[in-house]
């Protein structure tokens, strides 16, 4: 396959270099109208059975791109051309920050996995809001759904974290279709402590107070880690119902390194979150547990190890309403959405 060759060439580059090289190249190609049309026709698959009404929003298909890929809302035009039903930008923080020191992204090809410790590197909410305003103005015809994944700055103390989430919520309110509260990344020191019930209740409660005061409320989802115990997941379920969350995203990356095929300890011992195929089983287990406990009261978006239509169908059968890819996009290439959507129609 052509992408296998392209991928082998891209994998000779440092992961972050390869990311920006490939996306900037796609951006240049899409800047030429007739080439963009060719790309759209090649990688977009539409079918009425794929359309879903979730959170009061109409998704043209259930396959989205998870947060962390287009952190700064730079590539929405290109990702739209590749047929994604929705794209989650961010994680966005109030102030711009560089993230963790490089190298901070590592490939594990034998496992079809990545390890990242990016650390919420982004341009800051003000610049990203302006970028999204420009996108919205110039792309009225686009049906792609935009999610805003929000977090706290590294320098913000946990007891003040709720203030950071409020800033991002208010700034992005008119330019995103839904929100995801990210307290589950392992790459910002202390962030996962915000998953504890009291801390999380403060953040979600403050956001919902603002949200309920709006004429047009926005869906608020919570992204959770795959490393939580059932007791901790029970707390999430109780909190989600109490605070009237609109949805959950299951799951973020894992700090586990179990059963990896990669033998290179220099790679496997890197700190950060592991994503891709090794995460698939655990993220599905968490998804199933949450679905059972919630009894269909709150929709769940599945993320973790989705590469094919069969993977996506597994998540949907386990209780998800939508799926997100990320690492699968790196390994499978630009046709991943089209291929998944075609397979979903056949199932």
Q: Could you please describe the fold and organization of this structure?
A:
The protein has 347 residues and is α/β, with parallel strands linked by helices. It has one domain: TIM Barrel, CATH 3.20.20. It contains 13 helices and 13 strands. The strands form three sheets. It has an eight-stranded parallel barrel, surrounded by five helices. Helix 6 (161-172) runs parallel beside helix 7, helix 8 (230-242) crosses helix 10 and helix 11 (309-317) packs across helix 13. The longest helix has 18 residues, at 277-294.
Key features of this structure:
single chain, 347 residues, alpha/beta, TIM Barrel, 3-stranded antiparallel sheet, 42% helix
Blueprint of the fold:
Blueprint: H1 2-10, H2 15-30, H3 33-43, E1 52-54, E2 57-59, E3 63-65, H4 76-81, E4 86-92, E5 105-108, E6 113-116, H5 125-138, E7 145-150, H6 161-172, E8 178-182, H7 197-212, E9 220-224, H8 230-242, E10 247-250, H9 265-268, E11 273-276, H10 277-294, E12 300-303, H11 309-317, E13 322-325, H12 327-332, H13 336-346
Parallel strand pairs: 3-4, 3-13, 4-7, 7-8, 8-9, 9-10, 10-12, 12-13
Antiparallel strand pairs: 1-2, 5-6, 6-11
Question: How would you summarize this macromolecular structure in one to three sentences?
Answer:
With 347 residues, the chain is α/β, with parallel strands linked by helices. 42% of the residues lie in helices and 16% in strands.
């Amino acid at each position: 396959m052509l992408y296998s060759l392209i991928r082998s060439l891209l994998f000779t580059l440092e992961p972050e270099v390869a990311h920006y090289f490939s996306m900037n190249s796609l951006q240049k190609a899409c800047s030429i109208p007739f080439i963009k049309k060719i790309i759209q026709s090649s990688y977009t698959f539409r079918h009425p059975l794929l359309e879903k009404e979730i959170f009061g929003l109409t998704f043209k298909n259930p396959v989205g791109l998870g947060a962390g890929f287009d952190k700064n809302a730079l590539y929405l035009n290109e990702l739209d051309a590749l047929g994604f039903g929705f794209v989650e930008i961010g994680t966005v923080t109030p102030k711009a920050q560089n993230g963790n020191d490089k190298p901070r992204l590592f490939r594990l090809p034998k496992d079809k996995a990545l390890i990242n410790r990016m650390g919420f590197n982004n341009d800051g909410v003000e610049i990203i809001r302006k970028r999204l305003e420009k996108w919205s103005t110039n792309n009225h015809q686009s049906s792609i759904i935009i999610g805003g994944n929000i977090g706290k700055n590294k320098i913000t103390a946990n007891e003040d974290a709720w203030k950071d989430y409020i800033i991002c919520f208010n700034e992005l309110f008119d330019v995103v279709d839904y929100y995801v509260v990210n307290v589950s990344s392992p790459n910002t020191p202390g962030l996962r402590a915000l998953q504890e019930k009291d801390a999380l209740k403060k953040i979600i409660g403050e956001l919902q107070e603002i949200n309920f005061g709006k004429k047009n409320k926005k869906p608020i989802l919570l992204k959770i880690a795959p490393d939580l115990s059932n007791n901790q997941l029970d707390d999430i379920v109780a909190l989600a119902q109490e605070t009237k969350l609109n949805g959950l995203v299951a799951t973020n990356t894992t700090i586990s390194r179990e059963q990896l095929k990669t033998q290179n300890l220099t790679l496997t011992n890197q700190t950060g979150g592991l994503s891709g195929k090794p995460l698939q089983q655990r993220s599905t287990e968490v998804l199933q547990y949450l679905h059972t406990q919630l009894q269909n009261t709150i929709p769940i978006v599945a993320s973790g190890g989705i590469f094919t239509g069969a993977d996506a169908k597994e998540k949907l059968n386990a209780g998800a309403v939508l799926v997100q890819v990320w690492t699968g996009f790196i390994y499978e290439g630009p046709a991943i959405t089209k291929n998944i959507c075609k397979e979903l129609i056949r199932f």
